[in-house]
Write a structure and sequence with these properties.
This protein is α+β, with helices and mostly antiparallel strands and 191 residues long. Helix content is 23%, strand content 38%. The chain contains four helices and eleven strands, in the order αββββαββββαβββα.
């Protein structure tokens, strides 16, 4: 799938299902993540990060660039773009924001809004070691193959919930990140 086909599929399909979200009777701490999609050798890839091990929330986990909404952010898109610039050096003028998926509530008390964007040009990766241990890409085609997207059930306080996971090479992508990737793949492959 190239950029043009991705854009057409993204814009034409209705979002038929939301991310499986943790139950919550309160509004969690607001956060946003950027789902940056870059074309490498005529194939689309998703840019992912591995969180630094010293972080308080989700240390070492695979994630998207992002973080909590600050009072000076006007919206989730601004948060996601700011965080991507801070964490990996991706500037706002180098992305085309395509849209926003519904917020996902987590068991850890966050409400995360995914912002989908295409990276316009290759860029110099500038990792902030205070937040990011590593940054890498995964071909979108790997995730589109439903055989690479898995779910298990997790029981918490007597209730059953879906937990998404996607092993890729030596990496283990799971939780909210995997749920967002799954939603993106389902969205762009709906017939």
């Amino acid at each position: 799938m190239n950029k043009h086909e991705f854009i057409v599929r993204y814009r034409l399909h209705q979002l038929t299902a939301a991310i499986t979200s943790a139950p919550s009777s309160y509004r969690g701490r607001q956060a946003a993540v950027l789902i940056p999609i870059i074309e490498i050798e005529q194939h689309l890839h998703i840019i992912l990060t591995q969180r630094a091990m010293h972080l308080r929330h989700h240390p070492g986990q695979i994630s998207f660039p992002g973080g909590k909404v600050e009072p000076f952010d006007s919206n989730a898109i601004e948060t996601a773009l700011r965080e991507a610039h801070e964490e990996i050096g991706l500037t706002a003028d180098n992305v085309e924001v395509l849209g926003v998926f519904p917020a996902h509530k987590t068991f850890t008390g966050f409400e995360i809004t995914p912002v989908i964007a295409l990276v316009k040009q290759p860029f110099e990766l500038l990792i902030d070691p205070g937040e990011v241990a590593d940054c890498f890409t995964v071909p979108l085609s790997f995730f589109i193959d439903h055989n690479n997207r898995h779910q298990v059930f997790h029981y918490r306080h007597g209730k059953r919930y879906h937990v998404h996971f996607m092993p890729f090479e030596e990496r283990f992508i799971w939780g909210v990140t995997a749920a967002i990737i799954d939603l993106l793949c389902r969205h762009i492959t709906e017939k």
